[in-house]
Amino acid sequence: MADAVIVGAVRTPVGRRRGGLAPVHPVDLSARVLAALAERAGLDPAEVDDVIWGCVSQVGEQAWNVGRNAVLAAGWPESVPGTTLDRQCGSSQQALHFAAAAVLSGQADLVVAGGVESMTRVPMGSSIQPPADGTPAGTGLPYGGQLRDRYRGRPGFAADDPVPFSQGVGAEMIAQRWRLSRTQLDEYALASHQKAAAAQDAGAFEPEIVPVAVPDGAKVALDEGIRRDTTLARLAELPTPFRADGMVTAGSASQISDGAAALAVTSSDWARERGLRPLARIHTAVVAADDPVLMLTAPIPATAKALRRAGLGIEEIGVYEVNEAFAPVPLAWLAETEADPTRLNPRGGAIALGHPLGGSGARIMTTMLQHMRDNGIRYGLQTMCEGGGMANATIVELL
């Protein structure tokens, strides 16, 4: 039976905005993980059939197919192609799904999936250019009149704003619908930092991270977003930017970050022939969509879809990684799935570690695989909300 297995997984540290990775061009950041992936997995780059690379803000330094540019910057053979995709925050998780599909279908033997986002150098929203006199063709604002008319009048949808959908407003609406309190959100955020700090202190992240050299000669080797000194009292002092009477703050939201990650996907037979060691089998991969105004709830139907197709119950999954775009997202997911909260994001999530958009899906999978290997966990599930009200869900089985 055809299968798709992961034979390598590596990531950079996640840098804070204007932090240690800020001087590194996103193409060079991507090239660093590609080179490390080949070295650590023991694969020959010349045998890579394709590189599928996630990136959200494909403009400026991340324009003109950053995936292909990363291949060349890594020194891989010019015969290795690369492409770049955007499924918003789930871009590199979708890259993994496409890689698995290519291997399962027999169209490719070895595919690299991953992604990058340098949110310091290419700020979120850089690809949007408001119309102005003399604006060239092909620039301007997304969405268009028909989409705006469809949702005009909906609470949470600002039809006449340049960007009418707001993830922050969606997070506030989720908190309200699931009756989550400000204290619950702050407690969740604090726990994310505490879990990430404990994992970092124990050296749990070291096997999955490739240090990155920066132009001044230093190396960045640790995730920079973990706030060891934060407290509930400090979190309670933060303002609520999305609603004056709201509950979501910068402290209960994912961090703006820089980073990249990569995964190598092939079949068990092909891996065996070349002496590569499979880490996990890609058991089930799905994508789902939900209300684009509420925006962040699709991990709930995506999880249900993945479990149904896998023939598994939530209790059979030993670890769940639900991206912490905002604290209400995993908390609502827990309430709907009735999953064991002790299995959720055991090494912290994007609130503590950061969220480099196009690279986050591969970063999360890399971290989950390492946790599964360290603890002998058979099944792991990853899901993350995405702009437009979508979500990917992936179930992997440890080998």
Automatic annotation (TrEMBL):
| Pfam entry (one) | Thiolase_C
**Catalytic site:** 89, 355, 385
Q: What is the name of the protein in this document?
A: Acetyl-CoA acyltransferase
- Which ranges carry the Thiolase C-terminal domain? 277-397
Gene3D superfamilies to which the protein is assigned, alphabetical: 3.40.47.10
- Which ranges carry the Thiolase N-terminal domain? 5-268
Regarding protein family, the annotation reads: Belongs to the thiolase-like superfamily. Thiolase family.
Could you tell me the EC number(s) of this protein?
2.3.1.16
| Gene Ontology terms for molecular function | acetyl-CoA C-acyltransferase activity
Q: What are the protein's UniProt keywords?
A: Acyltransferase, Transferase
For the keyword Transferase, the answer is yes
Question: Enzyme group, top EC level?
Answer: transferase
InterPro entries xref list: Thiolase (IPR002155), Thiolase-like (IPR016039), Thiolase_C (IPR020617), Thiolase_CS (IPR020613), Thiolase_N (IPR020616)
